[in-house]
Amino acid sequence: MEQDAGIFVGAGQSALYLLPRMTNRHGMIAGATGTGKTVTARVIAEGLSHLGVPVFISDVKGDLAGLARPVPMHPKLEERAKKIGLEGYHPAAAPVVFWDLYGEQGHPIRSTVSEMGPLLLGRLLDLNATQDAILHLVFKVADDNGLLLLDIDDLRSMLNWVGENAKQISIQYGGVSTASIAAIQRGLLVLEQEGAGRFFGEPALELTDFMRTDLTGRGIVNVLAADKLMTNPKLYATALLWLLSELFEELPEVGDVDRPKLVLFFDEAHLLFEDAPEALIDKIEQVVRLVRSKGVGLFFVSQSPLDVPDQVLGQLGNRVQHALRAFTPRDQKAVKAAAQTFRVNPKLDTVEAITQLGVGEALVSLLDAKGIPTMVERTLIRPPETQMGAITPEERAAVIKASPIGGRYDVAVNRESAQEILARRTAEKAAAAAQAAETEAAAKAEAAAERTASRKTSRGRGRQSVGETLAKSVARTVGSAVGRQIVRGILGAILKG
Predict the structure, then answer these.
(1) For the structural domain made of 2-110+204-401, what CATH number should be given?
(2) What integer best gives the mean pLDDT of the chain?
(3) Which of 39, 341, 385, 490 yields a CA-CA distance of 20 to 30 A from 166?
(4) Minimal CA–CA distance to 302: which of 276, 330, 322?
(5) Cα 491 from chain centroid?
(6) Where are the domains of the chain?
(7) 102 to each of 99, 141, 297, 341, 438, how far by Cα in Å?
(8) 167 near 111, Cβ under 8 Å?
(9) pTM of the entire structure?
(10) How far apart are CA 368 and CA 387, in angstroms?
């Protein structure tokens, strides 16, 4: 299947190979529902795994779990392999590790709130500009005070603290809107009700666990169970963008390498960009452009190239276009746009071909050894080695049990962070205030007792002279003032600390 020429994708007028060293120039797999996009993604993932390249792939329908099982042999598969000249074709399972943000169908994936950052979290919470600015302010205050935001409870406590100290914080950081804080709190409540709270916390994902090979040298295929996650598309998109940004920030520069360190397949890619603010689109474009130098390849899987912004689409060098339908003006526009993304083949009417492709057929243009797109060809995609469909819960459980990750992420950890620190400070302030009140009450009682004793003594001694009265009055005044200053100073220091 894999030769020095690369990963055998399929054949048309000639055999087409995806070069491993060009995989980090990214790619696009597009086409209408049911035309074979998932099979193409599966085939490329299998090929990368054979070459020792780890893969991450989102499974939005549940059928990519079949990567863990060999495909049941069928005469049609053998016929396709023979027709395109694929020698030595045989079923073979890929080494798979299952992941799940909810921790139900795979190992949990977690991120801390601090790692997620205010830009992505603001989009997840669907904040307006004012609310987004307040969220950035809260993160800044937390950073300046060394307060870790690990889970939603930490962020909620931080929001409360900022709201309670709004006047003091506004002096240094700008105005604090309590209405915006309340709106963010409501958004966090909705997130928790949708189950997103399980995504935030520790132990957070270590990226090296995505970049493994098995004992035979095959790259691990990391499958994200996303069928349930798709009911919350913003969480799905935010999690994928967070993963991409973490790879960009943490991995070292490696330049152009013979094969990538990791390749990611993002299905339903349009969700990454849907309703995203321009600032976020710019950040995504920057990361897509630069992450290739970290040895990371990206494949966006969606129905149409129009689902991806132009500045991102321009970074996707390898193109596989399955059939599109042209029933509406928008459909016709998508067909023409898809055709224009290919290098022209004078022997092929690309626009017409896109609407005539059968299932398992595609228009393919891949980068050659010099990084130049080849002329588009009408291609039969090779048959996969793994099962095209879901697996049983028992089969999934067996794969999870044998996983090299083990139980590393299965139990959540709650170490001291913003919530605990702020709660302790509040308790200390309350205790200090109670102690001060008790001390002041005792001092007043003692002073009252002294005055009573003094009056009794005065009656026994007779009337004081004018000088004695004046001296005692001055002494009481000075003593009382000093006492109040000391008490106020102590309370002030404790409360401030």
Answers:
(1) 3.40.50.300
(2) 88
(3) 490
(4) 322
(5) 44
(6) 2-110+204-401, 113-198, 418-496
(7) 9, 30, 26, 38, 50
(8) no
(9) 0.84
(10) 30
